Amino acid sequence: MEAAVVSSTEGVVSILLAKLGEFLSDKYVLLSGVRHEIQELKDDLESMNACLRDLAAVGDYHQSQQTRTWMKQVREVAYDAEDCIDSFRYHVGGDRNHDEGLLVVAGWLRRTVLRPLTTLRAMYKLAVEVQSLKARALKVSERRLRYRLEPPAAASSSGEYAPRCYDDLDRRLPALSVDESRLVGVRSKTRAILKLLEHKDDGDDDGLARRKVVAVVGFGGLGKTTLAAMVYKSPAVQGIQHRAFVTVTRSCNLRAMLESLLEQLFAPARDPRCSRKEIMAMEKDEILRGIETKDIPQLLAHCSTHLSDKRYFIVVDDLWSLEDWASLKPAFPDNDKHSRIIITTRNRQVAESCCSLPGDRVHFMDVLPNDQSRELFFKTVFQKEHCPSEYRSLEGISGDILTKCGGLPLAIVSVGGMLAQAENKTPVEWTKVCGKLGSGLSTSAAVRGMRRILSLSYHDLPYHLKACFLYLSVFREGYEIKRGPLVRRWAAEGFVGGGREWTPEEAAGKYIDEFVGRSIVTPTRVATNGVVRCCKVHDIMLEVMTAKCVEENFISLLGSVTSYGRHQHTAATTTGHDKIRRLSVHGSHMPQGQQSRSGGGDEDIFRFRRRRKKGEGEGQDDVLSSVDLSCARSLLMLRCIEKPLPAINFKRLKLLRVLDLEGCRWLSSRELDDICMLSLLRYLSLRDTGVQRLPRSVGRLKQLMTLDVRETDVRELPETITRLGHMRHLLSGRYRYYTRSHRVKLFEPFEAVTIPPGLSAMESLQTIAHANVASSGVAMGELGDLPSLTKLCVMNCEKGPNKWKPFIVSLNKLSYSLRSLSILHWLNEDAGLEELLDLDSPPIFLEKFFLWGKLSMLPPWVSHLGNLVDLSLRENFLDGKEVIEQLGKLPSLLSLKLYYQSYMGRELCFREKLFPRLKQLIVDNMPNLDELSFQGGAPELERLTLAVLKEPADGISGIDKLPRLKEVEFFGHVIVDSVVESMVAVCKKHPNKPRVYRGDRPMEMDSELSS
Q1: What is the rounded distance in angstroms from the CA atom of residue 75 to the CA atom of residue 633?
Q2: b (16+ CB within 10 A) / e for 755-784
Q3: What is the mean pLDDT of residues 600-617?
Q4: Residue 19 has pLDDT above 70, yes or no
Q5: How much is the pTM?
Q6: Where is the Disease resistance R13L4/SHOC-2-like LRR domain (predicted)?
Q7: How many CA atoms, within 13 angstroms, populate the side-chain half-sphere of residue 680?
Q8: CA–CA gap between residue 104 and residue 452 (Å, rounded)
Q9: Which is higher by pLDDT, 108 or 844?
């Protein structure tokens, strides 16, 4: 399998090289006589891949157009070679099970006559195509030598491009010389940073004397450099004699930084814009005079010695890695002289590592709120804080432009500066700019500069992360990207590989955490244990990614139209790419008022398609009929209400690996049959498609790793599903959400699927959700034969305790593998889960546990779950204070959800020393609850979510004893006003001023509660 061998490969060519290495041992390759040609092709591509990586490390802005063309040719050869291999495997790669329902004679003829002929034909075609590919690869390789396409001489020995000393000086100078009158929101942030610099830790008498580091971290373009420059120029630090402002380049030229540092420290003129010649003319010090001849250790020693007995203030701007800080840190001695260092970075991990001492602080930058965004925009365009009266007609389109900018100061200033210079300030012209915002404005110097700065985040990524990052461009603007589907898609694409320590999905999860840490995606939902469940990409960053994808033919987009009439489909902009490799179709189901990536509504696409049926829209705009998907390996059509490609024939997409049709309600049974002929398919999502049944032919999808039929009407899986030996994730069922944050959710009963016998053959299964225990008795007995199973959700909605016996037997065999377990017995009057009390071998490594069903007592083994992080209970009818005592001693518990009738006691008291790490508590309509009190327990609690049908007789007390409380949320059909009012009053007095939410609405903390 490809995913098993790509853990050490990087990029398009690298994935192919791994596949070629595996393919060389194929028996059909040996028989076809092309092994020698494939080996030569592999050797040529290895050499080209090494050069490709060197050229990619240089970055877009140091590559000639000729170089980019050559890189594109290498990628296309790699794509075509991979298609050749997969096409061959499609024809000869194993039993495709086409024989169901055929007569015995017909089946015999297929096996003995037709299939051998098909194999011979495929082997002949393979030999011809490999020879052609080898010839192409040779020509591409010769072309590199002919045009001398090598990395620039400035490349370092490590292959990283080392820019000249002041390559990024242009990013620092505007910040240092900015007009303060045009700044918005910076002064308050400056005061906040100055306060952090002056902060003294309690109980630390030397807190002000020690050297302190304050790190400012955030997304590129948020104004970190401007903020650091404002602090640098503030009167509070100008009295410090030894100051310097050093900018770190992406590839960290340490010598250049140390030279700049020494020149600023030794120069009598403190203007950082002074050239070296001017500095040398003013300063005759021996250190500066011979600076070019000194090595790096000498330069570090000079800095450290000079500052050892002095108070200093240093700004290290745009730090990229921990290694860069480790190299630069020795220059700054900790001399107990009240010295201060400010670091700006895009990487959260770097910021936290630099601030490792108790007195150090990390300051997180955020986007501008709407009012400050408007003020900055109008100041940039009109030099006024608001829109002038003569331009009132521009206010509406200004809002659309600011929505595209998303509160990013760099984007607002760049676009505003361009509009300020435009001669015609009319709604029509500004609407055109809004429609083109992104790649369409590449001719604007201001926007080019903005895109260059944002691109630095992409270029700083390790090579193996770049494909995963670009893949995020398949999602439309504002789309909330879910962690689970994304990591499963990456694994199916072959972008990530597993190893001994983690699975491909676990490795992919680390990639998401890396993106969050680098501030290039924004988390929108974070679990209690800190795992990012959902995230978004900033709209402007999305434009940068899209332009890169189009340039490299990585992803094609269909569904973008401009907002001023002329339709421009992104798929048509892939100039020079005659083959679509990955296609994302943006559907018409969008939030009201939201626009597509180029500024218009996606509904226009379908109106345009209907006009084409009448003979309109011919010529260049007739792109839909010209889309060729024969080489597509991924097709995503998320939320397409109508079929955007009427002539699409799924069974012709023979090379498809990933197919996501979430929300496509037009899907028919005929099309499902065609999809089941795609033998290379590895990811199939039919979520929310309205599908009622899966065809028996689904058993042909031998490579399938993920099958997602959640939120459909599928209630029974065909028996052929057990033939899918590579299946890792089998997902079905449905949730109902009750809160804005989705923290309160409920499994829909009667939505589980029946799994046929033979489950033990699916040894790769990691996830099963949700299985019907009552109708899947044999399969439940086979669960214990699945060694990789880590997540399991089962439910029973039929009477009879014997329904659980096969499952209980299997559960005893899964004690070491299970990490997440959900058990639902939807029958209050039937204590069908009593057998859980006496498990011989309980799942001791559980991290997440949801138990719905009547019990006489809490299973004793729950008290020994040392790794349990998330516990949810519902309709268990547990009583007695000892239940809370047991749960309160769980050492790792972060989230406790007590749903309806889970606990029947009158008091719910969190005593001291109980729940030491609990961060989230949900209490849902407990019928007997008269008192909820916090008596020193749960000291780490941050979120409290409540649903109460009546005011507890003894009230809710002890909120003031929750020092870390941030949020209180009320939900449910009935919300008691008096309870909310009293909570608002308590939170007003709380030091943290936690927000109080009533349903989706945050309560005004400074005004009376309105009914």
Answers
A1: 15
A2: bbeebbebebbbbbbbbbbbbbbebbbbbb
A3: 36
A4: no
A5: 0.80
A6: 632-995
A7: 28
A8: 65
A9: 844
